[in-house]
Amino acid sequence: xKLLIELPTWLGDTIMATPAIENLLKTFIDYEVTxxxxxxxxxxxxxxxxxxxxxxxDTKKKKNRYISLYKLAKQLGKFDMAVSFRSSFTSKLxxxxxxxxxxxxxxxxxxxxxxxxxxxxxxxxxxxxNNSAGDLKLYFTPFQYSKSTLGINPGATYGSAxxxxxxxxxxxxxxxxxxxxxxIFGGLEELDIAKDIEDFLKENGITNYQNIAGKxxxxxxxxxxxxxxxxxxxxxxxxxxAGAFKVPTYSIFGPTKYKExxxxxxxxxxxxxxxxxxxxxxxRACPLGHHDCMKLxxxxxxxxxxNE
Length: 308
Description:
- By secondary structure, the chain is an alpha/beta fold.
- The protein has 12 helices and 11 strands.
- Helix 3 packs across helix 4 (about 90-100), helix 6 packs parallel to helix 12 and helix 8 (about 220-225) packs across helix 9.
C-alpha cells in the first residue's frame, strides 16, 4: 500500500503540520510513504524513519505549470491514498493527476485556532478519529556548542512587516554577550540584515559571535538552532524549529496572529508583542506606513522579559 503526502509550501507551516503527519503515519503503519513539496519543506523529512521517497515540486518555476504538474504526477505514480496539506487548485490537480483512489486536500478555515490544531483536525476528519496533536517532530540531532549560545534570527520570509529591527536585535545581543556566544541566523534574503547586526556588534567591541546567515543547509540550520540555549526571533520558520526542540525562545510578534502561529507546546516560549488595535493586519508591509507593531518593541522590552 502506498501513501502520498503533499506538504505545505513554507518551512514553518510544514513543521506545524508534523503532529498531524505523525498521527497519519501511526494509522497507516504498513504504507510506503512518499513526500512531495517545496525544497525547503521536504528537507525536514530527510531523516524521517517512515519516509521512503522524497520528491521536490519545482513546477511553480516552469513555463506551463499544468503540463509540468501532469509530468510530476506521472513521476510520482499511483497511490492508495493521497493527502495534501495545501488548499490550492494546482494542489488538487496534482492529486487528481496521480489517479490515487482516495484524495484529500486541506481546506483553510477562519476559526481562531492554532495552525497545529487546524492541520490535526484535517487529519482526524480523514481518519474519523480523535487523536490529540502531539509535539512538533523533527528527526535531527542538536548541535553541541562549546559554550552557552544565544541565537538571533532577524529574518522572516513572509514579508518586511514581520521583521524586527537589526539595531534592536544587536542591542539585546550586546547586553547578553558576557553570558553567551552569539550566532546570527538568516537566509540568503537576510544577508544585509545579518550584516547590519554584525556591524553593530563590531562597533561595540563584541567578538564572540558568528554570522552564518546564508551559509547553512536546512539540516545545518535545524541542528544549530536545536542546540541553542536562548533564541530571539521573529515569527518565522526558524522559530518553529526552536519550538520543536523546546529551546527557550523570545518570539517577537507584530502583524501576525500569535495565537495561531506561535510555538506549539514549548513551555519555554515568551511572546513579545504590543497588541496594537491595528494588529494583527496580516499584511506583508505595514498598510498604515508606521510599522508601530514592531517599531514600538525595544531591546529593553525583550531584555526585561529575559531578565525576569
